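Morning. Coffee machine broken again, so started the prediction first thing and wrote up yesterday's gels while waiting. Chain of 149 residues, entered below exactly as on the submission form.
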Amino acid sequence: MPKAKGKTRRQKFGYNVNRKRLNRNARRKAAPRIECSHIRHAWDHAKSVRQNLAEMGLAMDPNKAVPLRKRKVKAMDIDVQERPKELVRKPYVLNDLEAEASLPEKKGNTLSRDLIDYVRYMVENHGEDYKVSGLGLAGRLGRHPPFGV
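Came back before lunch.
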């Protein structure tokens, strides 16, 4: 299909474009952001994913990291040959991940302090009368009671 006349324009060099920033942003978009900060700081962009993870003591494929022995062949018949262990050059990444995983988990399912105090106050004043105490709590939570109550 022919082009419309006068719509083709030759490309001109953009002198006011910062090439360093343009390349950096293109590289950042091409590679996804690594969420884990410990791995992100130890990452070497010149190396492959498998090489980076091996240096940190992590495995790319868990099936190959811990190979399963075949059950049909007896271990006595075959001399078990151990593969040479890969050199862990960045053990601090693994140590940091283990330390972070061993921290106690923060409980995030609790109510706010003022709401707990308000419920305690309502129970002390109204006791087992949930209808009266529920009217005040519904207004506090931003919900209105039904019209029949």
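Residues 109-140 form one domain. Going to sketch it on the whiteboard this afternoon.
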